[in-house]
Design brief:
single chain; 1 helix; globular; 44% strand
């Protein structure tokens, strides 16, 4: 007799929200719930280590949402800086065209705008 037990990560899109990105100044974000899942014969049994993340639709910067702020965000579509716990990943993008640039670039290689 054998058993197939596993762990996996699950990302679940919840809704679109508004928040001003500190990287590219875009205001359109997607709210996700990320969790680890225990599976038994590929059937999910329970989720643990849940966290809410918002992802910038332009530069893909990721911000972790405070757990106590999640209910407020679900009731509305506005996220404030007080709702953010930390920046998980912050990409470097041109504020003019949204092109991803190296952190050492002085000018955007796509549009030539000064960074």
């Amino acid at each position: 007799m054998f058993f197939i037990v596993g762990f996996s990560n699950r990302d679940e899109f919840i809704k679109e929200v508004n928040f001003k990105c500190t990287n590219c100044l875009n205001e359109k974000f997607e709210l996700y719930q990320v969790a680890n899942v225990l599976t038994f014969f590929f059937i999910p049994l329970f989720k643990f280590n849940k966290k809410a993340l918002i992802v910038c639709k332009n530069c893909k910067s990721i911000y972790k949402v405070k757990s106590e702020s999640l209910k407020k965000i679900l009731d509305s579509t506005i996220v404030t800086y007080d709702d953010i716990e930390e920046i998980v990943r912050n990409n470097n993008v041109c504020p003019n065209c949204g092109y991803m640039v190296d952190k050492h670039d002085k000018f955007c290689p796509n549009c030539g705008n000064k960074l």
